[in-house]
Each structure stands twice: as C-alpha cells, then as structure tokens.
Amino acid sequence: MSNVPADILEGGAKLPLVEDFYTIQGEGFHAGKPAYFIRLGGCDVGCAWCDAKYAWNPKLYPPVPIETVVGRAAACAAQAIVITGGEPLLYPLAPLTAALRARGLEIFLETSGSHPFSGEFDWVCLSPKMKQPPLEEAFGRADELKVIIQSESDFDWAERNAARVGENCLLYLQPEWSVSQRITPAIVEYVKAHPEWNISVQVHKFMNIP
Ligand code: SF4
User: Of 45, 29, 49, 30, which is closest to residue 149 (Cα–Cα)?
Assistant: First the structure.
C-alpha cells in the first residue's frame, strides 16, 4: 500500500522513513558486510511471508526530510547504505541517492522491481514477487537476482526471472525463513544441479540482529 501524496514528498526531498539503523547485511551478495539500512514505508505487493509487514502502511510514517537520515548515515563507520522497505521504488529516490553519493557513500537497493526506477545505485538486488512481478526495466538494472523459495514450484518462477536478467547478474535462491528447514535440502540439491545459482541464507536471523 502506498498513497502518500506526491506534493507532501516534495519530489523526494521527504520520504516516509520507517527506521534507519546500522547493522550487518544478512542476505545475498553483500551478506556479512556492515551497512547502514534506510527502510522506507509503503508496499503494495503483499507477500504472505513478508518479515517487514509493519512497513506496509506509509501513513504510519510521516515523510521526513532526507537530510535527516543522510546525516545519520554519513556519520556511521560503514560507507555502504542499503535502501530497503517496504518497496522503496514507490518514491522518487533521486534526491536521496544524490545526497548519499555527495557524501561518498556506496548505495545498495533492495527492490521487488514492481515500480519504476529512480535514483542511482552501486548495486541493485532484485527480488521478484509473483503477486506483483517486476517491470521490464528492473531486469536490466539488476546486479543480483534473489528469488525467495517457499516450495519446489518456485524453482520454475526463479528460472523465468533468471531468463530475463543480464548475463552478469548474480543468481541467488533464498529459503523462505518460516519453511527453511523443510525447503533448504531441496534448494541445496537444485543449486548442485544448476550451479549458475547460489544460495542466500538470512544470516542476520541466525545472529539475532535486525
Ligand atoms: S515486496 Fe518485500 S516489503 Fe513488500 S510485501 Fe513482499 S517481502 Fe514485504
């Protein structure tokens, strides 16, 4: 869900901030790296297993000036920023990414790709969702394709998305956390048989960090 009026956002000078915090990236290619997370509110995809449901309703998170969060991010020891949500591409992100770049920060995006791109990123993690598939432009922007696997039938979904990304895009399968004990053996066997894929596990959940 997102229905924050554009004029309130002032073209992206303000954004509905859920939280910002310093932690360790737990997923995908950058797993294990310290990074400052900026989580924006609002998502209209509605994944049943979403672990950020509290971020879905942007009305709960009044827009804040981006300089507020950019200042905190720049003061952090890590020089890498993860912009996540919710679905960050609901909003015009160019002002935010320009301000982060001006501070010399590396910018990573986590997105479902279901809304038009804005902003400049050093790394785009595209995590496609069947309920609201990515727009075509998202496949060309992806540095990393991260497909959540809840059941064996999701392997076909993963392959259909992999067929659309660029040749240098890294491919990850990630067990859905609530069924990971059951589904992980199937993912292990799939990746062994299809070695172009890698496995992403949510290591932050094992470390009990956000
Ligand atoms: S796209 Fe992401 S934030 Fe939105 S419902 Fe799905 S998992 Fe949650």
Answer: 49
